[in-house]
Design goal:
The chain is of the alpha+beta class. The chain has eleven helices and 13 strands. Helix 6 runs antiparallel to helix 8 (270-298) and helix 7 (255-264) packs antiparallel against helix 8 (270-298). A five-stranded mixed sheet has the order 8-10-11-13-12. The protein has a four-stranded antiparallel sheet with strand order 2-6-5-3, covered by helices on one side. Among the domains are: 44-162, no CATH class; 301-444, Histidine kinase-like ATPase, C-terminal domain (Heat Shock Protein 90). It has helices spanning 11-36, 47-54, 85-96, 115-127, 164-207, 220-253, 255-264, 270-298, 308-321, 340-358, 412-422, and strands at 44-46, 67-72, 103-106, 135-137, 141-145, 151-156, 304-307, 326-328, 335-338, 361-368, 371-377, 426-431, 437-444. Helix content is 49%, strand content 15%.
Length: 445
């Protein structure tokens, strides 16, 4: 349905209408050309003009193609037949002083070489005061055998390019195409608009699963597809929320047995109680981190324009106040649409890792085609190639002790990738050639 409530024709009907209009327009243009541009009258040459060319003094033509004289070993072919051909051959043989069998008139008789065209040309010649009765219509080739056996051939010169009539015809077609171009553009834009809408909706779904559903408008097929897309988006949203809620509920319920275990270990010997308490502290930290991760991923936040250089600079300043070695390089002012709290946590985690494992962090922001790029480097030992992707897995740590002194519990980079992909971007790690690690974050502009 259109915004005004009027029913919209189906995609099939619109495509059929476009095809029908195109055919009708082509037929109309063809009929117009047929009546507006009559076929040209072919050039004709009097017998005297042909004879002068054989004698070496060809006439000069201003509107017709010039006659050219060639010499060849074989007679021209195929021979032309017609009621006037024997008379023309006889007169040409007599005028040139050769035998009748030494004269050949060849050519291809096309649709313009019929008797009616000949009468039209003869009447035109008479009106022009030309007394010459015999003439030939192009295309033709007249050959006369020489005493040494070779043949001299006279024919109209055919150049490269279009004739005047062909140029007018081509101009009509060009003008017709230009006249139809706006109509074709309007129809093409109308037909492609729903496809463009689906592409934008798919990108928006990748950046924000809670994006508004598609509007149910357009042809019937598009309405059906839009309704299916909205249903799919809603199912995906419920699926993600249900799984996230389940993980959060499990993590929350685990706190009760952990609390009971803390009471029960009070009666154990000091050596055993210390080891078990350390394990319980680690489990408590994992549960707390899991609950925070679930809370952040399920929190619906409004996305606003955010200038990345200012955000990175403020984070570097805050960390420098606590003694961390951070540096923000001068770069482009890049604005993205995003959740300020989530992006702040993303870059804070990367800067914290660079400081903790690399001794310091250097950050820069710039544009790369349709993306904003944030790179954070350190001078640490880097990561083996086999672990570059695994470090993004939840709870994975290269240092197996999971001590709070040597690192977190393995959710930092998982949160970073989740936030980046939630904004339609991604994050990747790469070992630098001179040593150290580089984190590269892409966010769509």
């Amino acid at each position: 349905m259109t915004p005004a409530g009027r029913p919209t024709a189906s995609f099939f009907v619109q495509l059929l209408t476009l095809t029908g209009l195109t055919l009708v327009a082509a037929w109309a243009i063809s009929i117009l050309l047929l009546f507006a541009l009559p076929p040209p009258v072919p050039d004709f040459y009097r017998l005297g003009e042909i004879e002068r060319t054989f004698q070496g003094t060809p006439p000069v033509f201003t509107e017709r193609r010039p006659l050219v004289l060639r010499e060849q070993a074989r007679p021209p072919s195929p021979e032309l037949e017609g009621r006037s051909m024997p008379q023309i051959r006889a007169k040409l043989a007599a005028d040139m002083g050769v035998g009748l069998h030494d004269v050949v008139i060849a050519g291809e008789r096309g649709p313009l070489s019929d008797r009616r065209v000949g009468r039209i040309l003869r009447d035109r010649a008479q009106r022009a005061g030309v007394s010459e009765e015999h003439f030939l219509i192009e295309p033709f080739r007249v050959g006369i055998r020489q005493p040494h056996g070779r043949w001299k051939v006279v024919e109209p010169q055919y150049g490269v390019g279009l004739s005047a009539w062909q140029q007018r015809l081509a101009l009509w077609f060009v003008l017709s195409a230009l006249a139809m171009a706006p109509v074709a553009w309007i129809f093409a834009r109308r037909l492609s608009a729903p496809i463009t809408l689906f592409a934008k909706a798919a990108k928006r779904l990748g950046r924000d699963p809670r994006a508004a559903p598609l509007e149910l408008r357009g042809p019937k097929e598009i309405e059906v597809a839009a309704r299916a897309f909205n249903d799919m988006q809603e199912r995906l949203r419920r699926y993600v929320e249900d799984r996230t809620a389940m993980v959060g509920a499990i993590a929350h319920d685990l706190r009760t047995p952990l609390t009971r275990l803390r009471f029960r270990i009070e009666g154990l010997p000091e050596e055993q109680r210390g080891k078990i308490a350390a394990d319980l502290d680690q489990m408590e930290a994992m549960i707390t981190a899991t609950l925070a991760f679930v809370r952040d991923t399920t929190r619906a936040a409004e996305r606003t324009p955010l200038e990345l250089s200012s955000l990175l600079e403020s984070l570097c300043d805050e960390m420098a106040e606590t003694g961390a070695k951070t540096q923000m390089e001068a770069g482009d002012k890049v604005v993205v649409e995003g959740d300020p709290m989530a992006l702040r946590r993303l870059f804070a985690n990367l800067l914290d890792n660079a400081v903790k494992f690399g001794g310091g962090a250097r950050a820069r922001v710039f544009r790369d085609e349709a993306n904003a790029v944030v790179e954070i480097e350190d001078d640490g030992p880097g990561i083996p190639a086999s672990d570059i992707e695994r470090v993004f897995e939840p709870f994975y740590r290269r240092e197996p002790s999971r001590s709070r002194k040597t690192g977190g519990i393995g959710l930092g980079l998982a949160v970073v990738r989740s936030i980046a992909r939630g904004h339609g971007g991604d994050v990747a790690l790469d070992n630098r050639a001179g040593g150290g690690l580089k984190a590269r974050v892409l966010l769509p502009l």
